[in-house]
Amino acid sequence: MAEVRDGVDRRLRRPVAIKTLLPHLASRPDLRARFEAEARSAARLSHPNAVGVFDVGEDDGRPFIIMERLPGETLADRIQVGNVDTVWLRSMAIDVLDALAAAHDAGIVHRDVKPGNILIAADGRAKIADFGIAKSLDAAGDTTASGQLLGTPAYLAPERLNGAPASPRADIYSLGVVLYEALAGEKPFTGETPVLVARAVGQGQHRPLADIRPDLDGALVVSVERAMRTDPEARFASARDMQTALGPVTPRDATAVLTLPPSPAGRPDRPSTSTRRAVAVAAAVGAFVLLTLGAIGAFSSQGSERGSVTPTTAAPVATTSPPSTAAPVAQVPPTVRKHRGHGKD
User: Is 112 marked active-site?
Assistant: First the structure.
């Protein structure tokens, strides 16, 4: 219903996005009202994880909205490329849930949470956009005057297909479907036509995410599946509850990326080959230093005290290295060394 153009705010010298209602739709009162409602809804929500609205107006009979402009990549783009990083995806979900929680607190339901409406900022944060069909929680009904249900069928909550009004739990359901698609690489409910898609959503039968991705963290799988429950009461009660379940991960938390894989079953964790070699070298150097110092001490004592210290006094220092340092090398079993020589370590 609108076109978006790249623009520049000359006064503040910043890039902006200019969303303008298409000319042939500007004369329709219902669509004009929806466009204006989008501006009001977005302007009410000031949040770092929601696309900001700077100004609204009208030019030659065409309403326009001046919005924050982002680099242009969306979650839909990343899903299309494939192999979405789970650490980043968890952080993205927490960002979106933060914005949805603020919207729900303000009495606004998004009603169209989908990958194409999740934009990626330059710093990696996610921002939810397009409140074009958002509605106030206190408004009655969930359809247009002509009886059309607003939303994208593949992400609509089942109760909305049955005529129930949009609610915060419907937004949570939509985000659950988004996460499922990003992790599985496919939508949970499909069909050749929107009607068949809606029927599949209503039936609520989809392939379990754990069957498609058995490698995923169990807590993440449980959270996604719970968000997608057919019964709204079985889902998370709020966006903040789902946020808590996903954990306090942010795009700047790189620790999860650096986590090493566990050791194979039945095999204890051991230092790497390079680490064991470093320990061996350190032990040898330590023994050499102690031997040298012991010899120098013995020689100095003999020269200054004329035989008051016998050579046998320095012998233990010269022949004994620190047990704690040399232990790791001595404890490596011969069979391991043999495997290492054959490249099996």
Answer: yes
